[in-house]
Amino acid sequence: MKVHIVFAHPNINSFNGQLRKIAIDTFTQSNSEVSVSDLFQINFKASADEKDFTKLHKPDYFDLQAEQLMALQNGTFTEDIQREHRLLTQADLIIFQFPFWWYSMPAVLKGYIERVFSYGYAYGRAGKYLQNKQILISTSTGSPLAVFAANNRSVEDYLKHLIVGTFELCGLKVVEPFIVHGAKQLNEEQSEQAFNNYKQKLISLQ
User: Fold this and answer.
1) Which DSSP category does 176 fall into?
2) What is the CATH number of domain 2-204?
3) Which residues pair with 3 in a beta bridge?
4) pTM of whole model > 0.90?
């Protein structure tokens, strides 16, 4: 099994960072191949623009989708995008690990999608590279579950744009998300229970 983790948190030792490590350790111990993209740590470029390409098909008028399609066909994406394409294409399971900020994901992860889930690769008539791969969202919130319950909404409701509008659109098989509510408010015992729950979920996906 090949697993690719896309990690989006500025602190690799954070709660999310610990979930990242659990995933790496769990899959490595089962002899799975694990690759990781630590977006903040590598200063991953978040804006989709002309600098995503080593050569422009139409330099006089920039059309992102048209350039992405041509770059895929001609190998003119920049190396960071090509690297992610290789890792995602090889993966059987993709994990998006991130904190739940402003009822969504960090901006760098949105930029990752715009640059890497490119036209012709992840979506569009010829965009078949991600179809039928499993994808798991693993996230933590600052607010406890009661806050979401009081609003009659769940984290999944807020992430519908990601689950439906991105993952399902690209033909990915979405695994039930792993969500830890009120992560900063957990005591040591509660944190350990959350970590164990995550490990068990990952084992069930193998």
Assistant:
1) P
2) 3.40.50.360
3) 34, 93
4) yes
